Each structure stands twice: as structure tokens, then as C-alpha cells.
Amino acid sequence: MPNEPSETTPRGAPARRVTMQRQGPILVDGPVEVELEDGTTVSSERFRVALCTCRRSRRYPWCDTSHRKRV
After folding, report:
1. I want to staple 63 with a disulfide (CB 3.0 to 4.6 A). Which of 13, 26, 43, 50 is the partner?
2. For the CA atoms of 19, 29, 33, 6, what is the dihedral angle to 10 degrees?
3. Is the pTM of this model over 0.85?
4. pLDDT of 12-42, one tens digit each?
């Protein structure tokens, strides 16, 4: 597992930046394709997407901030 940031992947394609957050979604620089557990693929052309990690989102796998505590 590499510890040094890389500007390209082993195949020479630009590396995607993924930002981990303790209490929130995973932010991925887009565009992205996400393969779901059932094998279907969803895609987004946005410059950055938020992937849900808590599974509370009504738009899963995209985060809709449902993980936030409501006051």
C-alpha cells in the first residue's frame, strides 16, 4: 500500500483524489463511475462527488446529508 501521493496511476491515467471524513461522506474528485453491490454502475460528471458511507441517503450511493443529526 503506497504512502506517497502519486500524480498518476500505474497505468498512467490521472490519479483521483479521495478525501476521507470521520463523520461524513467520502469526497471523490470527478467525474466518477461507481459499481454497486448488485453490479450496476452509476456515474456522475460533477467535479466532486460525495459518496454516502452511512447508507442513510435516499440517493445512495450519493450523499444527501441524511447522516447529519437533525435538531
Report:
1. 50
2. -80
3. no
4. 777 888 898 887 899 999 999 999 999 999 9
